Amino acid sequence: MLSHHELAALLLIRDANAPLQRFDSDFLALERYHLVEINESGDGCAPRLTMRGKELLQRLMQGSGHYFDFDAR
Highest taxon of the source (predicted)? Predict the structure, then answer.
């Protein structure tokens, strides 16, 4: 089960348009759960949702009565 901090980090990664400057234990936990991947490039580290992370957020949003197409981002 994700903590509220880990869920917030997952949403932050979904909405991030630029590489993040730092990673804390929440981001590292999401990587362990295979919900995010951390890609290193010349611009720094850029986390992105895995298919599993996208599916989790999709199910959570459908359960709340909201629908978001994450592939459209």
Answer: Bacteria
